[in-house]
Each structure stands twice: as structure tokens, then as C-alpha cells.
Amino acid sequence: MPAASMPSRPKRKREPVPSFDLYARAMLDYWLGKKVVFEFERDDGYRSRSRVESYFAPPAKWLKVEREAMKEVRGRVLDVGCGPGRHALYLQRKQHRVVGIDASPTQVALARIRGVEEVYQGSVQRLPRGLGTFDTIILMGNNLGLAGDVPRMRRFLRDARQISTARGRLIGSTRIPGTWIRQHLPYVKWNIARGRPPGLLTLRGRYKGRVGDWFDLLLLSPDDLAELAHATGWDLVRVLYEPREDPASYVAVLQRR
């Protein structure tokens, strides 16, 4: 009589990891000299490969708008979403006192190893308390829209104002929603049909067979940003834009009112 076969265990479905942790793992691997291919996937299936190497580039290889943005920095700085510390390290060398925060503990550790003197785990939803006020808050690398949607963006701007000095600045980079880019126009229309802002992206990370969780990134036109800023105690005082380098990206400089 043949032996009864044991029933096979059902395969456990791998839970998605936080996309920001997956991204941090890719950056750590790159820093360790490994080949890295990291993709962002949009909720309509569109994928784009991240230029992870750009997070370690020297200032000479930054976009002109990034270098110009650093000239707008004043005094004590909070770097929100500091990643491996590209901007924080540059500003430290310019004698600024910099505090970095990032949602991923791996990024925090990597930034610290690379020389960022003061760095903590935190995010746009969880700004640091008890660290005093800041003369400049920066959100580079498209981080201006990390709050995720318009209500959360409004709340973030109010929270940022509370930890800013009387003439504090907020400097952030974002992209103009892709209404005029052929491959992105259908997504903009789909957003509008769903009652979402045109520039609201739902994304997740993909790296080494792992799939991250979904998160939202809000892209804002300068006009929409100016309106949000004014409603939350800020003024949009300067837009840095170099269409020959990148026709979609810009850096906004907000001044506390």
C-alpha cells in the first residue's frame, strides 16, 4: 500500500515592504558598489527606472536648478527626505548646521555613515519636535509632494511653518503635472475622471524581485503651489526653472509670512 503523501504547504505570499525601505536598500547596494536596477511602477502599470547614481553625484553634476537652490539656503537647515545625504553633506561643507530626516532607518544609517552629523527617522507626516526652529527647510529630489495629496500637503505646510523661524524659507523640487507629455496625458485624464488632482501619482517600488507598498506623490504646477502656500502662511517668492535641462522639473522657494 503506497504511503500517503503529505499535503504541500501553501506558499506564503510575500508581504510588500515599504517602498522607501526598498529604495534605501537599493541606495545602500549602490554605495557598496553593486549593480542596481530600481523601478517605480505607477498604478496604471507604467514603469520608470530610477537614476540611483544621481543621489551620490557631486555638485558639478547636479542640475543647474539644484545648484541655484542651494544658494537660497539660509542658516540652520532641515533636510526632509535626506536620503544618503547628498544635499546635507554639501550644506555642511558650506558651514550650515543641518538636520536630516528620512522615513527609512536604512537611509538614516547610510546618511550617518556618509558623514551627515545629525540625522533622525522622520517624514513629512512626522516632522521632528523638540529640535528647535529652522531657517530653511529643504525637500529636494521631487520631495515637495511627499505629503501625498492636497489636504496632507496643506497640513504639512502648516506644520513646517510652526518649526520655521520668523523669516524661514521652504525650498522644494517637484515636477509640473504631465498634461503636455504624450505618454503621461492618459494618466492625467484618468486622474481627473476619478476625481483626483491631475498631478497625483500612486507609485510603488520594485527591486530584486521585491515589490514595495503603494504611496502617493503629488506633483504641483507653480500656480497651484502658490495658492496652497498662500493659504498656509507662505508666499511663493521664486521659481527656479531650466527647461533646456529638464522641461518638467522646477524648484520652488517659499517664504514664511
Task: Please provide a written account of the structure.
- With 257 residues, the chain is of the alpha/beta class.
- The protein has a domain at 54-177 and 218-256: Rossmann fold (3-Layer(aba) Sandwich).
- The chain has seven helices and twelve strands.
- It has helices spanning 19-31, 64-71, 86-93, 105-113, 150-162, 185-193, 222-231, and strands at 38-42, 47-49, 77-80, 98-102, 119-121, 134-139, 164-175, 200-207, 210-211, 215-218, 234-240, 249-256.
- The strands form two sheets. The chain has a seven-stranded mixed beta sheet, with helices on both faces. Strands 1, 2, 8, 9 and 10 form a five-stranded antiparallel beta sheet that branches.
- The radius of gyration is 20 Å and the shape is globular.
